[in-house]
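Hi there, hope your week has been kind to you so far. No rush at all, and the record is pasted right below.
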Amino acid sequence: MSGIYARRAPRAAVLAASAALACATTLLTAPAANAAPPTPVSAATARSYLGQLTVKAEGSSTGYSRDKFPHWITQSGACNTREVVLKRDGSGVVQDSSCAAVSGSWYSTYDGATWSAAADVDIDHVVPLAEAWRSGASSWTTSSRQAFANDLTRPQLIAVTDNVNQAKGDKDPATWLPPLSSYNCTYARMWVHVKYYWNLSVDSAEKSALQSILNGC
């Protein structure tokens, strides 16, 4: 990672279909694949990490813009970060010469839905960009924010149902959790893993929610 950081260096250590529905956004009847972001730390390690995070009230959103977190950068050839995650998290994904996913299926672990069109799938930032801004990223350099927004090494990016991702917005686990509650333990482990690596703070309600989930894992 290049650039001068304005933070500490990260600690080394994301339905039934009607036969009459003839559009490409058909919702499939069974999971074809599980999304596969990098495996998060164990619940025990996540509990340890959570205890080491700085607890303080969230900062202001003043000055925040998604443009300050350059994302979906080119990863290789014609493939940007979104296309890399779509390929990684999907099943039978076929890409065209520009690396766009033209076919395949995607199982969203947030809600248990499977989709056959990439347009129905968002790439979620597990720790949202605005949440990161309020938790310490406002003082980072642009290069640091770019690295965070395109982090394929930590469990920070995951392909999920688009409207579920939109419902999440920039909420933390105190106010939003995946609709499929069986995924909450994994989600909490992912969240803490990312916040710990990137030295982001947590607020008291967020920490309490994460502790409750991780204690039940």
About this structure: The helical segments are 43-52, 81-89, 129-134, 142-149, 162-168, 184-197, 204-215. Residues 66 and 129 are 7 Å apart (CA to CA). The first helix runs from residue 43 to 52.
